[in-house]
Design a protein that fits this description.
There is one protein chain. The chain is mainly β and 169 residues long. The protein is built from three helices and eleven strands, in the order ααβββββββαββββ. It has a five-stranded mixed sheet with strand order 3-11-10-5-8, with no helix packed on it.
């Protein structure tokens, strides 16, 4: 993996003491989120291969071509800031955070739109589309439980662009 100067600064920004950065200390947890894909062909699906997703029937596509990586997968309940970078050079990506009641159940999925039904799944937070190589953040008060972070741009979730986090009480 290549680390650009911009990416290194992004990840260091939350790791240095607030006094060094000249900003007030903040309460809560900070999670670094990377939205990534494998380039221009990331949306190409070989014929006959089913899209993948959390408990989607037919999942078995192999290695995902898009994804979300977090630096912390288990966090304490309370105020959490998700600092997000879109690592893509090609695609816009977004971030939706939804509670997960049962990890063995499928998320409500609109097949013809190739999107999760956010209204049916429930939304805890949304970070609108980020251009390639762009940054953003969203802060939310999380209760204990499991949550899924996913990109709900058409087809991205199905190509593997999701991850789970656990919020402990």
């Amino acid at each position: 993996m290549v680390f650009s100067r911009r990416r290194v600064l992004f990840f260091l920004s939350g790791a240095l003491p607030a006094a060094v950065l000249g900003r007030a200390a903040h309460a809560g947890t900070e999670v670094k989120v990377s939205l990534w894909d494998k380039g221009a062909t990331a949306m190409d699906m070989p014929e006959g291969m089913m899209p993948m997703g959390m408990a989607m029937s037919g999942a078995g596509m192999g290695a995902p071509t898009m994804g979300i990586t977090v630096d912390i997968a288990e966090i304490p309940a309370g105020e959490t800031t998700f600092k997000v970078i879109n690592e893509s050079q090609e695609f816009y990506h977004a971030l939706v955070i939804s509670p997960v009641e049962d990890q063995s159940s499928e998320l409500p999925y609109i097949v013809d739109k190739m999107m999760v039904d956010e209204d049916a799944a429930g939304r805890t937070a949304v970070l609108k589309e980020l251009r390639p190589r762009d940054f953003g953040s969203v802060t939310v008060d999380l209760q204990p439980g499991d949550y899924i972070l996913y990109c709900n741009i058409s087809g991205h979730y199905a190509m593997g662009m999701w991850t789970l986090i656990k919020v402990t009480g």
